[in-house]
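2024-03-11 09:14:02 INFO worker-7 job=invfold-0412 stage=load source=structure_tokens
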């Protein structure tokens, strides 16, 4: 297994994408440190991993808490002997479906501030240890909306900031043997529901027929006419984290099936 004896931190491991990535890392041999703010959701993922024969630890903390993140990274190194993979998948609080000219300032800036702050904190904490040990992989995920996507609120600006952070950090720490890369993905049907969409946009909750129509529309927007799955995103993250990814760094892999240009 490619990630055997590796220690991986997954921030936001209680969410849909975080859980899928954590389980994929564990299945590939990594000891996964599940990080988030809700014990119940993290423990549920840990139970699944352990039932499948994997290794997982649950750590409740806020990934926006600089000192807590730094201390946790140190603990991982002390307990595991190394910090080999770090990926941040926490929710940024994006508000979408509202024209920019009608959007509140706080709704626009929230994903930008939250996204870049938490990614910087977690990337920096991991990078410090990885540079010292001379190896490691830091991963990020966003929707790729920095290339231009209307009605996405602050999502594009948040994605653009994270994209730039990934590339700049990769250039700085690459000579020390540390890779930094990202994944672009958006509109995963398994992560969507009428309730979640209403929360994003503030619009009335759509009925099932409208929701199914939306999913079909998403499929139609892809070059392949098929939306990506959680399993595909998790497999891409696992590949990027593994030695088989070679020297891939400072770039993003597009798992949106072509909804955005790369």
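2024-03-11 09:14:09 INFO worker-7 stage=emit residues=262
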């Amino acid at each position: 297994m490619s990630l055997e004896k590796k220690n991986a931190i997954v921030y936001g491991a209680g969410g849909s994408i975080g859980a899928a990535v954590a389980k994929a890392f564990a299945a590939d041999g990594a000891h996964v440190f599940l990080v988030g703010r809700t014990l119940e959701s993290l423990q549920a993922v840990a139970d699944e991993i352990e039932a499948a024969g994997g290794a997982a630890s649950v750590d409740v903390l806020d990934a926006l808490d600089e000192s807590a993140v730094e201390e946790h990274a140190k603990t991982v190194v002390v307990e595991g002997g190394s910090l080999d993979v770090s990926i941040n998948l926490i929710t940024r609080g994006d508000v979408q479906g509202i024209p920019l000219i009608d959007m509140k300032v706080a709704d626009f800036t929230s994903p930008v501030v939250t996204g870049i702050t938490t990614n910087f904190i977690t990337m920096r904490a991991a990078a410090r240890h990885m540079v010292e040990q001379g190896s490691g992989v830091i991963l990020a995920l966003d929707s790729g909306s920095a290339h231009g996507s209307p009605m996405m609120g602050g999502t594009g600006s948040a994605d653009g900031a994270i994209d730039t952070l990934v590339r700049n950090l990769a250039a700085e720490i690459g000579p020390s043997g540390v890779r930094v890369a990202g994944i672009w993905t958006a509109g995963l049907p398994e992560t969507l529901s009428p309730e979640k969409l209403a929360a994003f946009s503030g619009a009335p909750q759509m009925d099932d027929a409208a929701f199914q129509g939306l999913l079909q529309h998403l499929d139609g927007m892809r070059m392949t006419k098929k939306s990506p799955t959680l399993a595909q995103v998790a497999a891409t993250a696992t590949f990027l984290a593994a030695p088989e990814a070679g020297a891939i760094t400072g770039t993003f892999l597009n798992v949106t099936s072509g909804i955005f240009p790369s």
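2024-03-11 09:14:09 INFO worker-7 stage=report msg="The helical segments are 16-27, 39-51, 66-80, 105-133, 155-173, 194-201, 208-221, 230-241."
2024-03-11 09:14:10 INFO worker-7 job finished
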